[in-house]
Design brief:
Elements: H1 21-24, H2 31-79, E1 85-92, E2 95-101, E3 107-113, E4 116-121, H3 122-187
Antiparallel strand pairs: 1-2, 3-4
Helix pairs in contact: 2-3
């Protein structure tokens, strides 16, 4: 069985694995509470998995936007000091606008969300975006790792549940067979 306190790097606990069902429960009376406990644990892991999937989906939407913004800032960095030029940029999914980029442009405006836009020097903007991209990619990697870990824990608990249930069925059959045997002895 997993040690108490075992967890993945982000603190999600390891589900216990019941190797020997007979030593795990001492009587049939202990089976039902343990089955309920395993079902509750499965529900908690499924809840964590759902939240992790949602967070990963948000990151999958956000990462391309950060990359595109970083590429634009890198383009402006490369054109710094060159003559003025005209460009088309995206305002929304289907809305574009034209802009004149003057010679010597050394700052960009970044949309930070929550109706906040700030001006940054190009170098600082690149540094900020690179940091955000790295953090988002690392967070996505952690989400994917956590989803795999959670699926493993759910599977472990489902196996435990099945083994415990099968053990209960075996005990019921044995008790029934013993009762039938006693009835036969009493008749004879």
């Amino acid at each position: 069985m997993a040690e108490v306190g075992d967890a993945n790097p982000r603190g999600i606990p390891v589900a216990p694995f019941v190797e020997d069902v007979e030593s795990f429960v001492n009587s049939r009376a202990e089976i039902e509470p343990n089955l309920k406990k395993f079902q509750e644990m499965i529900a908690k892991y499924q809840f964590m998995e759902m939240n992790t999937q949602r967070r990963a989906a948000g990151l999958n939407d956000k990462i391309p936007d950060i990359r595109k913004t970083l590429e634009t800032v890198q383009f402006l960095q490369a054109r710094k000091g060159s003559k003025a030029f005209e460009t088309t940029f995206e305002l929304n999914d289907t809305l574009f606008a034209k802009a004149q980029i003057p010679t010597g442009t050394d700052e960009v405006y970044l949309w930070l969300g929550a109706n906040v836009m700030l001006a940054y020097p190009i170098d600082e903007a690149m540094e900020l975006l690179e940091g955000k991209l790295t953090a988002a990619e690392e967070s996505l990697s952690n989400c994917e790792e956590d989803m795999d870990f959670l699926r493993q824990q759910i599977t472990t608990l489902e196996v435990n549940t099945a083994r415990l249930y099968n053990y209960e069925v075996t005990l019921k059959r044995r008790d029934r067979a013993e009762a039938e045997e006693e009835q036969r002895k009493e008749k004879n």
